[in-house]
Write the structure tokens for this entry.
Amino acid sequence: MSFPYVTDLVNAVFGTQWQLPVPVFGVVVLVAVFLSTLVFGKEVARRETLGVVPAGTGSLVTDLVFVAVIAGILGAKAFHLLEYTDEVLAHPASMIFSRNGFSIYGGLCFGTGAAILFLTRRRVPVLPMLDAAAPAMMLGYAIGRLGCQLSGDGDWGVAADLALKPSWLPDWLWAQTYQNNIAGIAIAPPGVYPTPLYETSMALVLAWLLWTLRSHRHRAGFLFSVYLIFAGFERLLIEKIRINARYSMFDFAVTQAEVISFALVLAGCIAVLVTLRVRSSLPRVVFTVLVLTTLSACVCL
């Protein structure tokens, strides 16, 4: 069951008949931004006390988040429109002004770019701030995907194969029909894979890992580099069971997200090696993880 509007959820829980046009996805995104800002602010404050960023940088957190969010929304919409150019040409107004249809990577590229420009103009070190933002960005993504799940905005997976479902796993974690979804799409039983739930679970674990890596002795940019690896690899995995437009590239059928994800993983691996403080004593396990991550990304493509 999906709940496009807040009153849909309230009515389902309390048996009321309220009708207010407040979208669930928008509310969840606001919650994600609020909690991510708190986490980001806390980390910036910690870095201020360590002298990693200038004193007073914490006062810029709210403005920085606002700029990044606005740019991120515009970028997310732009990337989605680029992915579905045929539909845009056929129905430009409905595609442009639709309340659904946003690409996370468009938001990441535009939001990060706007944040870098903002920090540069304020003469604040960029890389330490990107490091500080990494756990918060992953947390925000985890919460935001809950909005996709609740509203049923079309970010679900392909048709689920119940024959592959482990017996101990509840049916709703394997297949859902997203009745009353905001996309207005009828899904035949048994349903599709609820990929937003899978992404939320993975992103929460990755956010925790990034948070625990904050005290790692590294050069500026290391934590954000790890974030790029995590974000790219997570999306590469989930793309295997998601519905997305595919394009032909070097005889491979790939999605826009897969191409960008692979680029993020590759860039992140290179950046991690560059930003490690003591490369001569690099543990073998780190090399192993990096190699396996890159190879796995290649296999996914």
User: Anything to note?
Assistant: DSSP finds eleven helices and two strands in the chain. Residues 24-50 form the longest helix (27 residues). The chain has one domain: 6-158+174-300.
